[in-house]
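Thread title: Can someone regenerate the structure for this chain?

I was given the following input by a collaborator and told the matching structure tokens would be attached. They weren't. Posting the sequence so someone can regenerate them.
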Amino acid sequence: MKIKRLLFMAAVAAFCVPLSAQQSFETPLWPNGAPNSNGDPGDTAKVKVFLPKKETATGRAVVICPGGGYSHLAMSHEGYDWAPFFNNMGIAAVVLKYRMPHGNKEVPVSDAEEAIKLVRRNAQNWNIDPQDVGIMGSSAGGHLASTIATHSTGDALPNFQILFYPVITMMPDITHKGSHDNFLGPDPKKKDEQKYSNDLQVTRVTPPAFIALSDDDHTVLPANGVNYYIEMYRHDVPATLHVYPSGGHGWGNRDSFIYHKQMQLELEAWLRSF
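Best answer:
Regenerated them for you:
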């Protein structure tokens, strides 16, 4: 009798967990084929969608672009590991596995734009407000996110942006060389370097931004994020900048980052402010 009772309780628990659990699933970004190519047919784009519980969903969503210098992707600590943080706030997290440019800058840009559009197309099914879809990026993913925020229009333009230790400029003096060369190619035109220096592309319609970085980042110079904030301020676009005394580069959502909790609290406060 005791064994039967334990089995019954286990069955009830197994039945109840999925009903209250957050939902996640993957979907290809270009099921009918991408509109452009980077020369690598094995490099395909997809998103992994993490939806909050329906009863706590706020309607907000964020497309997450991990970094990796436009040569690889840090999918865990700059991607999937952020999903619980956002879901606990009732925000849908959509982690983008974008294709590498291999010198064709249109490839990752089109992937990020399509991810924003995909979220809006599925807004009703995913309990998302199509007018509350943001983009987030870390390092080179921050360059991609800020590119979408400053270049894209219509259904591809996000409503807000979150940038962690971002590559912002493509100008040779302060850019991240690996990201620069992988995105534009090793011998780009000056006009392309200027076009994709996103601090130079800020306008009054650029979406609001949360920017966080470390003062001792020697991989992506802090001037990238600081200059972006200055241009946001100069154009009367709401933005907040957090510069932590230490931490270097690439901390993502790792607990080992000494200011991890403070950073999460500041991001949460910003997200609740609008």
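Confidence is low (pLDDT under 50) at residues 1-20.
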